[in-house]
């Protein structure tokens, strides 16, 4: 029972509904952790992180305001915590789908219309603003990373939680199959919710370490070359372009995350086949000249960088200087290609550029073949060869270009189906 009640406390959403109450203190997760678990040893860390905010069954309609006067004396604080729980109103962001509101209406075609619309819309959107949840961002990340992660991964999710589907979940499973000691942070306001927790629970329940965390974007960009860019955006001085702004922000946020914390950024549409720990300061080639083997395009769907790596700084600088929300890919894959072409050979950067087979063994046209069930023996043999080649060769992960194949089924017996079956953990809904 001890454990149950402490988990209850864990699921509290620490939010003051009454902003006039000065006694309310924002306290770090680390502190709560100490207070609550001071006498309660719980070994399953994923359970702790998973239950940190939401326990669906326990807190159906209630949140609590926690009032603390002293969080240095753990025993006292624990008592305060236990005795001063005050049920208040629900703060339920289960279905927060705010990013949608920043998607430009189709009828706004000129630059001036877009700027005007964006200037009006941005303040209403929570995307760039600070609140109780965003202010906890850094301490939640540090607390999570403090567990001693084998390798730290970041993903971003700027779409509604309900669109985090089977393929994303399978991608996550393959990540953990190859990196059981890894820690994955899903940087997302929408997934940092009851609904998001519900989606990820099957993976968390198996002991894998996942944190969904609402980003503090101004904090992430602070003291980076993109800080001024963000301020211009917020003032409404810049054209957001017609490409969904939140998605394009992802191109920038991944850079800022790695700059601040180091680790691996991975898009949510990779099937991971192997451990990445041999890779350092690495960017992957998407396409190369077949004769010279020189890369022709790099991609930012996977980035592996040490903390404060100067190339990340260069990427952010380029983003801020050349942001163009009207050109697909301009701030993402094209950007990293442009910058690496310019400074990548700088000897101090120790940059490793891996060939296409490492992460992009198929382009977005070839990937369609990976979805298909073999129709005859020749095709079956091809599938077998391909799967073996990918599993045994120098492929770390397969980018499946999900935005291009979202509507196509992964057929039974196909290359992708076989790869996923080989590398999944829960393995539900592969053929969808
Ligand atoms: C675009 O459409 C919205 C309604 O969907 C309308 O309120 C707005 O005035 C339109 N703007 C322009 C510039 O046509
Ligand atoms: C590159 O490697 C050298 C030698 O190991 C090291 O001194 C230097 O700090 C590295 N540079 C970066 C940007 O990591
Ligand atoms: C197998 O199917 C493919 C595609 O339908 C076809 O091009 C190929 O000729 C077939 N091979 C055999 C041996 O039937
Ligand atoms: C402490 C506690 O009651 N935890 C529960 C949280 O919710 C899950 C189901 O969603 C239960 O399995 C846990 O026991
Ligand atoms: C201009 C730009 O970089 N656009 C990107 C916006 O985000 C989508 C989805 O991530 C990318 O495909 C575009 O390339």
UniProtKB/TrEMBL annotation:
Q: Where are the transmembrane segments?
A: 21-38
Which keywords, in A-to-Z order, does the entry hold?
A: Membrane, Transferase, Transmembrane, Transmembrane helix
Please name the GO terms that the record assigns under molecular function: transferase activity
Alpha 1,4-glycosyltransferase domain location, by residue?
Answer: 305-429
Report the Pfam families cross-referenced here.
Gb3_synth, Gly_transf_sug
Which SUPFAM superfamilies does the record associate with it?
Answer: Nucleotide-diphospho-sugar transferases (SSF53448)
Query: Is Transmembrane helix among this UniProt entry's keywords?
Result: yes
What's the name of the protein? Alpha 1,4-glycosyltransferase domain containing protein
Supply the source organism for this entry: Trema orientale
């Amino acid at each position: 029972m001890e454990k149950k009640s402490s988990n209850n406390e864990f699921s509290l959403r620490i939010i003051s509904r009454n902003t006039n109450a000065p006694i309310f203190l924002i306290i770090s997760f680390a502190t709560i952790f100490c207070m609550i678990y001071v006498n309660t040893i719980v070994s399953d860390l994923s359970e702790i992180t998973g239950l940190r905010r939401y326990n669906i069954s326990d807190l159906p309609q209630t949140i609590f305001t926690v009032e603390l006067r002293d969080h240095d004396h753990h025993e006292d604080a624990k008592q305060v915590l236990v005795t001063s729980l005050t049920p208040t109103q629900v703060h339920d962001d289960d279905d927060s789908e705010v990013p949608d509101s920043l998607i430009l209406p189709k009828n706004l075609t000129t630059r001036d219309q877009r700027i005007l619309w964006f200037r009006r819309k941005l303040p209403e959107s929570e995307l760039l603003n600070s609140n109780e949840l965003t202010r906890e961002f850094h301490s939640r990340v540090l607390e999570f990373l403090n567990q001693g992660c084998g390798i730290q991964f970041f993903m971003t999710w700027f779409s509604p939680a309900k669109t985090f589907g089977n393929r994303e979940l399978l991608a996550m499973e393959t990540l953990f199959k190859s990196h059981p000691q890894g820690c994955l942070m899903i940087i997302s306001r929408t997934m940092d919710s009851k609904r998001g927790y519900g989606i990820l629970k099957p993976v968390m329940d198996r002991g894998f370490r996942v944190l969904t965390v609402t980003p503090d974007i101004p904090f992430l960009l602070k003291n980076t070359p993109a800080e001024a860019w963000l301020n211009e955006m917020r003032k409404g001085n810049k054209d957001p372009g017609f490409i969904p702004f939140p998605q394009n922000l992802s191109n920038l946020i991944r850079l800022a995350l790695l700059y601040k914390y180091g680790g691996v950024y991975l898009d949510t549409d990779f099937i991971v086949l192997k451990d990445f720990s041999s890779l350092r300061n690495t960017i992957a080639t998407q396409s190369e000249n077949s004769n010279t083997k020189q890369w022709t395009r790099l991609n930012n769907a996977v980035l592996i960088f040490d903390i404060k790596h100067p190339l990340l700084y260069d990427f952010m600088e380029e983003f801020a200087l050349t942001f163009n929300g009207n050109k697909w890919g301009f701030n993402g894959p094209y950007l990293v290609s442009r910058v690496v072409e310019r400074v990548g050979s700088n000897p101090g950067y120790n940059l490793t550029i891996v060939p296409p087979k490492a992460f992009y063994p198929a382009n977005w046209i070839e990937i369609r073949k990976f979805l298909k069930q073999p129709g005859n023996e020749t095709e079956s043999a091809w599938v077998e060869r391909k799967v073996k080649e990918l599993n045994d060769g120098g492929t770390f992960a397969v980018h499946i270009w999900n935005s291009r194949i979202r509507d196509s089924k992964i057929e039974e017996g196909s290359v992708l189906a076989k790869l996923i079956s080989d590398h999944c953990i829960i393995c539900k809904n592969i053929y969808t």
